[in-house]
Amino acid sequence: MVGGGIGGLAAAVALHRRGWRVEVLERAPEFTEVGAGISLWPNALHALEALGLAGAVRELGAVEPAGGLRDRRGRWLSRTESAELTRRFGRPLVVLARADLLRVLAGALPAGSLRPGSEVRAVREDGHGGVVVRHGSGESRADAVVGADGLRSVVRRALWPGADGPRYAGYTAWRMVTGPVGPDLAAEGAVYWGRGETFGHTVMPGGRVYCFATASLPEGTDFGPSEHAELLRRFGAWPEPVPSLLAAVPADAVLRHDLYDLPPLPSFVRGRVALLGDAAHAMTPNLGQGACQALEDAVTLADCLDRTADVAAALRRYDLLRRPRAQAIARRSARLGAVGQLSWPPAALLRDTAARLMPARAALRAMAPVLRRPAGGSGGRR
């Protein structure tokens, strides 16, 4: 496994549970993430159940009681209760710290399988039915290699040298977690659509709130040392609870990243090498599906490898099952992002009016292809 993020660790757990000997190579000095939350939708919880980890994750998370879309003035455009989400898709929306999810995944693996501080430098097939990975600690040989090393994947560049690189989505994103706040501020979640800007918040355990925001800006825009000050300037006069939530965010706890996706590949697989998660299908965060799709990838990959001893055939089946779905969701997320970032007032008004007129049932029905339990990845035979 190249990459020790959510997708790489999940794939390692899924394969370890089926009797595979796994090795996870991670260039960072430890397996962790800091500073942000993560939303796990019903499809992700189904995948975690296949890993035997859904209970542990839910204990560390909070179920969002309700949420939806608001306009720039704070008026509801659409709203959904968690109970209805659960009724339709079998599971609720759970929010927790990304670092907590990584701890659960890493804790399900033998300590000896985790190799932090191992930056991968080259990947090649050895000509004898195996794959060689060269990294900072030497070389590793494997029957199969999974590239789960993110947007700027070394594995993708090595095996797909002609593939186009990341493309800027046209907007940047801030992520942050508040300190503990009162129950009125952490009551439910919402995403506010502005003009070229959005702001969202969702409940987390311990009375905290995960907040995120976007703004249409040139790539690489620099606001100097205080991202928090820029957030206050842009969103400090938005409807409550936005200003109060920003006031509850520590000034040094704001992360910002320009957003990118990846052009679609004709295949996620080359011989005995497969791509997974962002390395395969990096997408904008507008549907909250980046990590969810990586978890689906992991479970489906292990299920395919469990069904046949022919590794190459198993990976081809993985590609057949995962690529159409993941790429369709990536396209849908990009479209939603473009809609959310509309800045021309007449277009934004038309967008908000259409969202307000759409019945809640129709909105949930439209999300069914994303949130349903996917084909494949239901578990292994061993």
Automatic annotation (TrEMBL):
InterPro entries: FAD-bd (IPR002938), FAD-dep_Monooxygenase_BioMet (IPR050493), FAD/NAD-bd_sf (IPR036188). Residues 2-333 form the FAD-binding domain. Gene3D superfamilies: FAD/NAD(P)-binding domain. Keywords: Monooxygenase, Oxidoreductase. One of its GO terms (molecular function) is monooxygenase activity. It holds the Pfam family FAD_binding_3. PANTHER family: MONOOXYGENASE, PUTATIVE (AFU_ORTHOLOGUE AFUA_6G14510)-RELATED. This is 2-polyprenyl-6-methoxyphenol hydroxylase. It comes from Streptomyces aidingensis.
